[in-house]
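User: Study the chain.
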Amino acid sequence: MFLRLHSKSKEWNDTMHSKREIFEDIIQIMKKDYAGFLDKKHINCPENYLIIDDMTDKDFVETIRRLYGVIV
């Protein structure tokens, strides 16, 4: 799994990034760009989720979905 972002703070390219890096970027994107962030600030607690690079891609995606209530 890799993520390509255009960010002022980081230079992203086509290389693989760790799941932890991707998770931290998702958190920052949600804080900055998600209009409902303040409403869900106390519901979505990313600090309660353990992301490790050795977890499977499936477990990683499921964790992100649980955190942000994404149903696909």
